């Protein structure tokens, strides 16, 4: 009974309020009490109840989420000392999937990070409803719900993409196969919404459309880079073509817009060139179908400078990184010495010819 009372919602809120104080006299004892409660049953459920109460101060709710994140890192695994009880973990998973409409940006981001950390340990086997619930949110007609669902999906997909065990890679490929086409179509729709909003007068609608478009592109980037065994499929090729085709759209938007909208357009343009760089770095041979198009892309923007008024420094630097990586890649070189074994893959010779065409001097420059 003593333990239950000590981790009541009211008690946790009171201690969190003191932990959020600027006074060291209040702060230090509160932090010590919270540390003591870390291994008590019901503590994390009470923390989540504090977060869920929208009438409470924002800084206290934010602190509650941070303590839950720390607890997940330390006590969520079954093998951890003082691991969370399965019953409490089940309650937290259920409540997290019901918290998709958090209106505060910072809290929504922290919540997405928290969900992703748990997903890395539990999804899909112990949390099968997470991805279906997030995809339902992505399908929502409510702009905020859709944006928050995309934010959470992006963090969850990033967390799952980082797993390297064979079984985990297989699960991620299955996930990619099941959702890539849907997210790609959604992104295409959002690109149209960006175009419409850019010609309207509602700056808030434009910023939300840009943000949702960027989040969907980030999800696609992760699925594209880590979810395909080969890029020689129509879905992967369609995404890459869109990345190339939509670059000038966002470069133009960056010049036309201001403040946060300009920043979102700039980040999206950078994301596109980063997709090309990462694709080539991760699997140079699988990148071969995109090789010629990528070099034409770089040549257009930074060699011939046909759109120089649209460019900015970081974009130009990334373009040169892509060109350098391609032209210096040993995978695209035929054998030089007579005793070297000739490449069995004719694509390598084709890649060499493409590189030679676009190299200013030669491959050894």
Helix and strand topology:
Elements: H1 2-6, H2 9-19, H3 24-37, H4 43-52, H5 58-75, H6 86-97, H7 105-122, H8 130-138, H9 143-161, H10 166-198, H11 203-226, H12 234-256, H13 259-282, H14 291-303, H15 313-327, H16 346-358
Helix pairs in contact: 2-3, 2-4, 2-5, 4-5, 5-7, 7-9, 8-9, 9-11, 10-11, 11-13, 12-13, 13-15, 14-15, 14-16
Question: What's this, in brief?
Answer:
With 365 residues, the protein is an all-alpha fold. Helices cover 72% and strands 0% of the residues.
Account of the protein in words:
It is built from 16 helices and no strands. With about 375 residues, the chain is mainly α. Helix 9 packs parallel to helix 11, helix 12 packs antiparallel against helix 13 and helix 14 packs parallel to helix 16. It starts with a helix and ends in a 7-residue tail after the last helix. The N terminus and C terminus are likely disordered.
């Amino acid at each position: 009974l003593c333990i239950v009372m000590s981790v009541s919602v009211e008690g946790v809120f009171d201690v969190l309020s003191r932990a959020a104080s600027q006074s060291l006299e209040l702060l230090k004892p509160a932090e010590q009490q919270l540390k003591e409660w870390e291994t008590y049953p019901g503590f994390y459920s009470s923390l989540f109840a504090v977060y869920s109460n929208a009438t409470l101060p924002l800084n206290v709710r934010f602190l509650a989420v941070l303590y839950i994140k720390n607890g997940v890192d330390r006590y969520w695994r079954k093998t951890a000392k003082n691991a969370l009880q399965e019953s409490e973990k089940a309650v937290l998973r259920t409540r997290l999937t019901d918290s998709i409409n958090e209106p505060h940006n910072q809290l929504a981001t922290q919540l997405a990070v928290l969900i992703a950390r748990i997903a890395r340990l539990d999804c899909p086997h112990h949390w099968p409803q997470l991805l279906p619930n997030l995809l339902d949110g992505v399908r929502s007609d409510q702009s905020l719900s859709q944006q928050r669902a995309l934010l959470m999906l992006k963090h969850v997909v990033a967390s799952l993409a980082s797993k390297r065990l064979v079984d985990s890679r297989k699960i991620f490929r299955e996930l990619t196969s099941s959702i890539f086409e849907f997210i790609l179509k959604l992104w295409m729709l959002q690109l149209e919404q960006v175009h419409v909003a850019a010609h309207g007068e509602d700056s808030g609608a434009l910023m939300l459309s840009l943000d949702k478009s960027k989040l969907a592109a980030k999800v696609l980037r992760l699925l594209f880079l880590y979810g395909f065994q080969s890029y020689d499929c129509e879905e992967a090729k369609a995404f890459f073509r869109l990345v190339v085709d939509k670059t000038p759209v966002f470069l133009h938007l960056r010049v036309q817009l201001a403040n946060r909208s300009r920043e979102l357009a700039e980040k999206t343009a950078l994301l596109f060139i980063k997709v090309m760089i990462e694709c080539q770095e991760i699997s140079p041979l699988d990148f071969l179908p995109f090789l010629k198009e990528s070099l034409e892309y770089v040549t257009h923007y930074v060699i011939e400078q046909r759109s120089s008024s649209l460019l900015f420094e970081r974009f130009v630097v990334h373009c040169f990184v892509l060109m350098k990586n391609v032209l210096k890649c040993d995978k695209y070189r035929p054998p030089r010495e007579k005793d070297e074994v000739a490449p069995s893959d004719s694509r390598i010779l084709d890649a060499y010819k493409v590189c030679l065409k676009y190299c200013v001097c030669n491959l050894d420059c």
